[in-house]
Amino acid sequence: MTKQHFCSAIDNENSLLIFDEDDQQWQLTLMKIATDDDLENNHHLENVGDIIEQITIPVNFCPYCGKELLNNNSKIASYVCHDFSHW
Fold first, then answer.
1. For residues 67 and 55, what is the distance between their CA atoms, to the nearest angstrom?
2. Could you read off the pLDDT of 41-80 as tens digits, one per residue?
3. Contact (Cβ atoms closer than 8 angstroms) between residue 75 and residue 84
4. Beta strand extents in the chain (DSSP E only)
5. Which among 35, 33, 19 has a CA at the least distance from the CA of 70?
6. Residues 8, 25: Cα–Cα separation, whole Å
7. Rounded CA gap, 5 and 64, in Å?
8. Considering the entire predicted model, what is its pTM?
9. What whole-number distance in Å separates Cα of residue 8 and Cα of residue 16?
């Protein structure tokens, strides 16, 4: 079962704060989703709603409400950024 942090400040469907069981840490994932304008300006994008960019950052606290997120390991924090706007 995936744990997810919900708070009233995260009202954007393009933001997720979930506990990654494999890495044993909370991760904030932010996504930029393609719009009609993005499709017109970038020939690599195919559909409205496709993910253009996604970044995942390990966190110890919710950056929106400040609540401490428990069960994190002591692993060195690193982030992952995916750019799907070109090939």
1. 21
2. 888 888 999 889 999 999 989 988 999 988 766 666 677 8
3. no
4. 3-4, 15-20, 25-33, 51-59, 80-83
5. 19
6. 22
7. 11
8. 0.74
9. 13
